[in-house]
Amino acid sequence: MVLAAWVVIVTALVLILPGAFVGRRMSLPWPVAFAAGPAITFALVSVLTVLYSAVGFVWNPVSALVGLLIVLVGAWIWSRLLQTGIGLRLAPAPADTGEPGVGRTAILRVAAGLGLGGVIIAVTCIRPVAKTAFAGLNNISQVWDSLWHASSLRWINETGIGSAMRMGELMNYDTHGFNYYPNTWHALGALLFPLTGANPVEMYNTYSPAVLAVTVPLGVASLAYWFARHRYDVDTSALIAGVAGAVGALFPSLPYVEVQLTSVPNAVGVSLAPAVAVLVISVVRDRRRVGPAALAVSGVTATHPSGLILLGVIVALWWLLEGAWRPAASRLADLATLAVTAALTLVLIFPVVLGTIRVADTNELPFFDFREDGIGVLDGLAQGAFNGTIPLNLDHYPNWPLIIVTVVGLAVLAWLRCWAGLAGWVVFALVTTNAVVSLGPLSYPLGAIGGYFYNSPHRLTFVVAMFSAAAAGTAIGVALVAVTRFLGRRLAPSGDDAAPAPTKKSRVLVAATYVVLLALIAGAAVVRYPPNAQIASKERGGKYIGPDDLVAYEWLASQPDAYDVLVLNNLDQGTGWLYPVTGVTPLFPFYRANEFSDRQRDLFWGAAKIGADPAIDQIVRDLNVHYVIDSPPSYWEFQRGRPDPENGHQGDPFLELRENGAPGLTEVFRQGETVVYRVNEKVYPPAPVPVPPPAEAPVPAPDQ
């Protein structure tokens, strides 16, 4: 747990500080700069990794620091331009409204709430893995996507290639065919290896929840702050935001389901979106924020495009329901400001746009369908609105305390007249419901939004839960404010019915009440720990990759030639974990690959013919394959059993090898069902030993 704690601390610092410094240098106030810091940090990672890849620089902590210094110089230039005559005309300082900025005490309260929420998330996600799962922090998640994330972390650290445009080089060993993948989360994590000393599996298991321990409370708090600002001053809204940041950690979807199902980049992108959406909304009143807002939006997009969808929906609903009716300057001027922000964002996310277009032909996300038969519309609405989708519907729904406080929170939003926030909850509750059960004529538009979340109920539930947690936290925070004000009046001198001015006594009262509330939330977290920890660590039992596999991987890594040759593996079995665990190179590092080559396909289906088919043997030699690893079962049911292409059943290409062996393979290791073969002399005949020529008989010397 010491290593885990260190990874969490370093992650928080590396995630927040670079972006916060850049945002501050671009004229954002410190509190806003810290709120936008993670998104701006990811934006820097996105831009720098693509540029470094283009010019041949490696991505590592030193080059990242150099890039940060260059960006800080650029941010300083931006701030100086804002002070020129043209800059002051295009982006004048907002008029002084007389309202004080957020105070230090309010900042400390927000930090306390965010810190408590982060600690709850980190402990709930990491402790059960470290204490109860096989291999502890070296445990292997059994979920499909986790292999890609762990492999990406190791690959970027080893190669120095962090560009999202070059992930095909990892996905397909043979062809290196193009593949775009939003890679900022992995590229940032790769910087932590020399700073923490963690190995790739330890890093994946601790870095995943560590990032979410920062972004989830921040996202929920940002929404709650926005909600509260409809009626409250800055300091009171900050207090409410701190409450919400802590409350969010109690919700089972925030982020425990996402950690279990390993959709961490999606969850990070989505949880970054609210803070950035609030920043974007603020540009109409302070145009100096256009640059950092565009940078932050690009960071959200580069982390995962789903975050951009949430951000866009929040801003659009705000404009339709609030912004257009109370413009800061005029409707046209405000729209122009938002349009400039969008245009700058498009420039910054050009690699994302280009990469998405290039993989559009293989993009299947609009076609995912997770609907189940037998669920009615009302049941679907309840599940979509109140955190009841798969896998929560099995053992963790309905959670009445959270449902009740959410409903109260939605009523509070109506009282606050935060119509855009209320509409955001409704929209995503409907989108989530549509992923559970068809909503008829609404199915297409709702499915279009949900497509960017794979129309996956658990990913969409994460979005709804952010609104729900923010609403619940707002309700609790409003109650806290009401209680402290009531007590303040009771403690005020008799005959003074007006709201008392802040005094030392009233400040102590608010602080004490806030501490008590945070203590109650911490107690609720203790009560919620068993179910939430079970959710977060559920897929850790070794169903596909277990202790036997780890022993086999370590044996392979101990062979003197292991790092100089290639290992043929069955990608359907997940044995690509050989790479993140040991660094030994498998032919198939993931469960799928882009643009399989003919020789990859022939070797995959012809493993049992090694030593019997000259064409297969030549592929083995060309690829320098010296080992084969087999470890059933395969991940999906259709990948198991005997191949039957006539009836559409793929089957297991290694089944024949498992049953009959192969002439060119010799079994050299077995642990449980995991078997390692070495390619033998039938494929790699020993080099002929040169025979020295026979020694010539000495010529006798002539007689004298």
From TrEMBL:
Keywords, comma-separated and alphabetical: Membrane, Transferase, Transmembrane, Transmembrane helix
Record carries keyword Transferase: yes
Domain of life from the UniProt record: Bacteria
This protein's record includes keyword Transmembrane: yes
Residue intervals passing through the bilayer: 6-23, 30-52, 58-79, 106-130, 207-227, 239-257, 263-284, 296-320, 332-354, 400-416, 423-442, 462-487, 508-529
Listed GO MF terms: transferase activity
Protein's name in the database: Phosphoglycerol transferase and related proteins, alkaline phosphatase superfamily
Organism expressing this protein natively: Gordonia paraffinivorans
Lineage, opening ranks: Bacteria, Bacillati, Actinomycetota, Actinomycetes, Mycobacteriales
